[in-house]
Amino acid sequence: MNQYIIKNIEKEIAINFIQKYHYSKIMPKLTKYYLGIFEENNLLGVVTLGWGTQPLQTIKKIFDKHDLKSTDYLEIGKMCFRPEYNQSNHGSKFMSSLIKWLKQNTQTMFLYTLADGIMGKVGYVYQASNFRYLGSFKTSVYMDKETNEKIHPRSANQLCIENAEFENKQKVFWLTHEFCEHKGLYKINGLMFRYIYPLTKEANKILNQYKTYEHPKDKDLIFEKRIVKGMFEKIEQPIFNMDVFEHNYQKPKKQIIQLSLFDI
């Protein structure tokens, strides 16, 4: 199987591509690598590698019997392709190329990633690429009832300030049901699916000491909407409008370099 070419690219080019083709325009803050996926001279996709908001806690929670550090893994932050390359066979081919690049260009032990179940994704590309499945956890977002904007809790700083004033409290960390009703917001629950790939023999040996699980399927997706304080009801998958940024504090940056530079 011919592999794609993986190259470091400029941050601005990666951001432009992601904001054009990824469903979520908000970029991770802790990014180490901005990589382009090429076939000859054509830029087909982009992936960013770095860490989530709690790099050390993430690896320690997975491997609680080993003294691993944040430098022992990288997490896929964003990954997207041109629409004509979104089929699963292209995804698994790309993952093979990325794994090879990581082994040749880094000393990291693990590649970690999350499949966004709240967006209806269970991680089929990771399953096809022999990632181990570590299980799921529940996550919450807010959705504007009028615009369908998806609001991540980490993007709701201003809303939390307003909520505290609304409730006459000093501070709140989660938007209350009463405030959400006042602002016209839903609180939506879903799942995140965790995957990991060992990049070295030592990593594989360590991972074999921990439990992994059978891969999830579409039937394992869960969506819930808060109806009153502390109570949720099951709903169909919500359809978010990812082009609205009325509440999210991080808005897309203006394009700096035209994507046509790579449309050879």
Entry summary:
The protein is an alpha+beta fold. 25% of the residues lie in helices and 30% in strands. The chain has a single domain (5-262), classed as Aminopeptidase (3-Layer(aba) Sandwich).
Would you mind describing this structure in some detail?
The structure is a single chain. With 264 residues, the protein is of the alpha+beta class. The chain has one domain (5-262): 3-Layer(aba) Sandwich (Aminopeptidase), CATH 3.40.630. The chain is 25% helix and 30% strand. It is built from seven helices and ten strands. It has helices spanning 11-21, 55-62, 88-105, 124-128, 157-167, 177-183, 201-207, and strands at residues 5-8, 30-39, 42-51, 73-81, 110-116, 132-144, 150-151, 185-198, 224-228, 231-234. Strands 1, 2, 3, 4, 5, 6, 7, 8, 9 and 10 form a ten-stranded mixed sheet that branches. The chain is globular and about 55 Å long. Residues 251-264 have low confidence and may be disordered.
Write the SSE topology:
Layout: E1 5-8, H1 11-21, E2 30-39, E3 42-51, H2 55-62, E4 73-81, H3 88-105, E5 110-116, H4 124-128, E6 132-144, E7 150-151, H5 157-167, H6 177-183, E8 185-198, H7 201-207, E9 224-228, E10 231-234
Parallel strand pairs: 4-5
Antiparallel strand pairs: 1-2, 2-3, 3-4, 5-8, 6-7, 6-8, 8-9, 9-10
- The total tally of domains equals 1
Q: Which stretches are poorly predicted, pLDDT < 50 over at least 5 residues?
A: 251-264
Q: Total number of β-strand segments? A: 10
Strand content: 25-35%
Radius of gyration: 20 Å
Enumerate how many helices there are, as a single number: 7
The helix fraction, in percent, is 25-40%
Counting helices, strands and paired strands, the structural category is: alpha+beta
* Assigned CATH architecture: 3-Layer(aba) Sandwich
The CATH top-level class label: Alpha Beta
